[in-house]
Amino acid sequence: MADMGLEEELSCPICLELYQDPVSLPCQHNFCRECLNIHIQQHIDTSTAKGTQFHCPSCRCAFKLKDQLISRLPKNLVLANIISRFQSRKPETTETEAGSRHENQGVVCQVHRKSLSVFCNTCDRAL
């Protein structure tokens, strides 16, 4: 359960997936580089007296858009390393995922290659 909260913290607020090539804006909010690039293209404000600017998707802080701003943002290496470690220790499936797969697709035992059955702990009847 704690991993679900951690996974949420390690997820991009735009795509809601684990960060891919994470970058930080000056306001300290993190995003996938590609997600931020798409956000800027979709929400660029060229009508301001200050010139071309965009707003942070999280805090709405305004930033001036300089040529190739996103490509100049350094990768957040600390965050990338944390995500890498998280992914390496994360089990392939959780009990909840396994349960929903069992209901929807029929989970197969990895050793015996037979359909899994769910039994009641009290009476040992198949559910």
TrEMBL record:
Top-level taxon in the UniProt lineage: Eukaryota
Name assigned to this protein: Midline-1
Cell membrane found in the keyword field: no
Keywords noted in UniProt: Metal-binding, Zinc, Zinc-finger
InterPro entries, per the entry: E3_ubiq-ligase_TRIM/RNF, Znf-RING_euk, Znf_RING, Znf_RING/FYVE/PHD, Znf_RING_CS
SMART domains: RING
Residues of the RING-type domain: 12-60
Gene Ontology molecular function, alphabetical: zinc ion binding
